[in-house]
């Protein structure tokens, strides 16, 4: 096993080769110890299958279990990294991970390895890859200097390779079973799919999304949308309404500009407490929107999540992240919110939003200091 890795890493400079060999030897020793335990306590496949079915019954996981994107006029889809992780945990007696083997600050790149091992069968898959210490921004490529930024770039680049390694080790029929159970979970709803598609288009229409834009995104007619795609449209609506992303981030051909500002102009909101006319009733469409969204989402809407104040704070965070060099500030905001609070930005409290704003400003100060 060590010899195979050494062969794959033949391009490593000799002065760094010893460090890589030490890391590989440590990883091999760890895996060998885990294999001994796995042999002593083999997995119960029937119990593992039941765990996999139970995991697939969670709707939030089922919605994230498949990635999908368009390439030309074709639609590419497959199990996501979240799906692979869930099945690996339930299947048991597996070791997976992404390891940074070498960091060369002078050359501005790291050598990393993603791997997955079935500890019982001794079957494993690994991929070695290089990661440049750069970040793509709207102003071009920027060098990463902090250890945290480099680590996050390595882990981000490694996640896709780790997914491929896990899918190569997990039995294909087990993965297919999980995806089938996820589809069953998504199909369990009190309203038929056609009605939920109609509700989705009504809501998306309020933020300027047309039927043609949705059909172009998924390369199919509205009537051919899947359960997972309708769930994704719900998340897109929330992201745009909360100011986390603009329409152009999700649909080709959408006008560029201030996405949150367009939402404020097209989605009725309750009258602000700062209004000078206390007798002015709230817009008539606001309760209808809440009811429609509740039907679209499959449950009641949490009150107070989408207010003007929240939108302003999120918009400020996005502006700070964009100034700090993040090409996709909405993605960065979502990632940090999950890291700190284990929640999406639209689910955090106002106090937590301000914590995210403080961290974003600190990141901007760090970037400005590095430039100086």
Task: Explain what this protein looks like in three dimensions.
- This protein has helices at 2-8, 14-40, 45-56, 59-63, 81-91, 147-169, 172-187, 193-205, 211-218, 227-241, 259-266, 285-297, 308-323, 329-341, 350-371; strands at residues 66-71, 74-79, 94-104, 109-118, 123-132, 134-137, 140-143.
- The chain is α+β, with helices and mostly antiparallel strands.
- Residues 1-12 and 256-308 have low confidence and may be disordered.
- A hairpin with a 4-residue loop joins strand 3 (94-104) and strand 4.
- Helix 5 crosses helix 6, helix 8 runs parallel beside helix 10 and helix 8 packs across helix 12 (285-297).
- It has 15 helices and 7 strands.
The DSSP helix count reads 15
Q: Rounded to an integer, what's the Rg over CA atoms?
A: 24 Å
Give the termini distance in whole angstroms: 47 Å
Number of domains: 2
Let me know the largest β-sheet.
Answer: 3 strands, antiparallel
Average pLDDT for all residues = 74
Strand order of the largest sheet: 3-4-5
Enumerate the spans where pLDDT stays under 50 for 5 or more consecutive residues. Answer: 1-12, 256-308
Written as H for each helix and E for each strand, in order along the chain, the element string is HHHHEEHEEEEEHHHHHHHHHH
The helicity comes to 55-70%
Query: How many β-strand stretches?
Result: 7
Shape: globular
Coarse structural class: alpha+beta
Task: Report strand %.
Answer: 5-15%
